[in-house]
Amino acid sequence: MNAEAIKVVLISVGLVAGVSVALGALIVAAERYLLNYGTCKLDVNGGKKVLEVAGGKSLLSTLMEEGIFIPSACGGRGSCGYCKLKVKAGGGPVLPTETPYLSKQEIADGVRLSCQVKVRNDIAVEIPEHLFAVSSFRGRVSRIADMTHDIKLLRIELIEPETITFRPGQYVQLQTPAYGDVKEPVYRAYSVASPPHDNRAIELIIRLAPGGICTTWVFTILKEGDEVQFNGPYGEFVLSDSDAEMFWIAGGSGMAPFWGLVRHMKETGIRRKTTYFFGAVSKRDLFLLDELKSLEKEMENFTFVPCLSSPQQSDEWKGEVGLVTQIFDRKVEANSSAEAYLCGSAGMIDASVKAIQTKGIPKEKIFYDKFN
Ligand SMILES: Cc1cc2nc3c(=O)[nH]c(=O)nc-3n(C[C@H](O)[C@H](O)[C@H](O)COP(=O)(O)OP(=O)(O)OC[C@H]3O[C@@H](n4cnc5c(N)ncnc54)[C@H](O)[C@@H]3O)c2cc1C
Ligand code: FES
Predict the structure, then answer these.
(1) Atom of ligand 2 nearest to the CA of 75
(2) What is the Cα–Cα distance from 305 to 248, expressed in whole angstroms?
């Protein structure tokens, strides 16, 4: 192809892309300012609740405005798959943005991503009963502490309601208010890092995601004394009722649920044999070391194994060196009756699941929360 032909192709591609973007913007503007869907009837669980709602918003936002909270770890961007609900009637066709998160069976059963479904006419949905127990909370930040160079611990004292009931391992959705270019409040999931007996407050352990909406707000704007909102609790990442030996694996802010869990176990006298592998790059990425080492002394069945993948010379590190999965592999014997609990990045969890399975631990005994 000669230079002239390449120029024509590039201009054509540019034109098509420009027209598509303009059309997209027009549709969004029309949806927002011109189309009025009026009032729609929202039927929840076969008439258990029948609500009159203003049409035009996503099903997720509409339900939230009615005080019904659905898990939504990505804040409604269609990238977490947490906000599934059964839509019995009126949801329109399944969108391409939903299909990656829905199995064939789910699609046949009417399961949808509630953040992608627009309320445009009367709609009937089915919501799991346990989600009606989820509430919205108002609290005041009483402490923001640096755990590492990119991880902070937040303590939020509850104002309304005054107490919270949750199972250790569950998470809440913290509201980030509008700021700067962020025009609407957004919600992000954070595991509760405090134990349930400390029920007048919650603690969160939050790692900065560079350029991220919520974590940038936490790191640069939020200050002690500020009021915040969150809703919850959500999630099934909780201890099983068995007595099986446990292996915990975490990295970075994946520490959060385990910091709550271990203190819960101490408080309630759970004596299950537990080995906690915590992976970090170098010493500056480790935190709560002294606290966990103290718990190791106080709890005879609890062992804490911090692992550094690239310790600096100045770290003078005498502990385990290698990826957390390698250390796990080295130290753990085959044990098909054990359970594994993992928390952190998707990459770390995928690698850990493989390592754990080589020890004979079946998939159904491996529990995790992926943070991305
Ligand atoms: C069940 C669960 C529990 C969790 N618990 C914790 C916890 O205890 N602690 C914790 O730290 N995290 C936790 N997370 C992760 C947390 O919910 C957030 O995803 C994370 O804090 C990032 O949020 P953010 O708003 O700062 O970033 P976002 O705004 O969501 O952005 C995430 C990243 O993507 C990039 N990005 C955003 N938009 C674009 C774009 N258009 N193109 C390219 N890049 C883009 C950003 O720069 C950023 O790096 C949990 C997640 C889940 C699902
Ligand atoms: S809220 Fe994340 S996919 Fe719907």
Answers:
(1) 1
(2) 10
Residues 166 and 145 in one domain: yes
Q: Strand 123-126 and strand 111-113: pairing? A: unpaired
Give 40-94 pLDDT, tens digit per residue: 999 999 999 999 999 999 999 999 999 999 998 787 889 889 999 999 999 999 9
Q: Which residue reads 């980030």 in tokens? A: 176
Q: How distant, in Å, are the alpha carbons of 37, 65, 98, 316, 358 from that of 125?
A: 18, 16, 17, 58, 42
Rounded to two decimals, the pTM is 0.87
Q: Ligand 1 centroid to 141 CA: how many Å?
A: 21
Q: Which numbered ligand comes closest to the C-alpha of 194?
A: 1
Ligand 1 pocket residues where CB is under 6 Å: 73, 80, 171, 188-191, 205-207, 209-215, 235, 253, 256, 369, 371-372
Q: Looking at 199, 234, 269, which one is the last position of a domain?
A: 234
Residue 372 C-alpha to ligand 1 middle, in angstroms?
Answer: 6
- Is 142 among the domain residues? yes
Mutate to test the pocket of ligand 1, among 115, 215, 341 (most ligand atoms within 8 A of CB): 215
Determine how β-strand 135-146 pairs with β-strand 227-234: antiparallel
φ, ψ (nearest 5 deg) of residue 266: -65, -45
Q: How many domains does the chain have?
A: 3
Pick from 131, 151, 178: which residue ends a domain? 131
Structural domain that includes position 333: 246-370
Q: Which atom of ligand 2 is nearest to the CA of 81?
A: 3
CATH assignment at residue 307 = 3.40.50.80
| C-alpha 264 – ligand 2 centre gap (Å) | 30
Closest ligand to the CA of 188: 1
Cβ contact 206:110 at 8 Å: no
* Ligand 2 contact, 299 CB (< 6 A): no
Q: Which amino acid is present at 136?
A: S
- Asked whether residue 185 is domain-assigned, the answer is yes
pLDDT at 185: 87
Segments of the chain with pLDDT less than 70? 1-3, 5-6, 8-36
Q: Are residue 267 and residue 304 in the same domain, yes or no? A: yes
Instruction: Give the number of whichever ligand sits closest to the CA of residue 172.
Output: 1
CATH code (residue 159):
2.40.30.10
Please say whether the beta carbons of 169 and 237 come within 8 A: yes
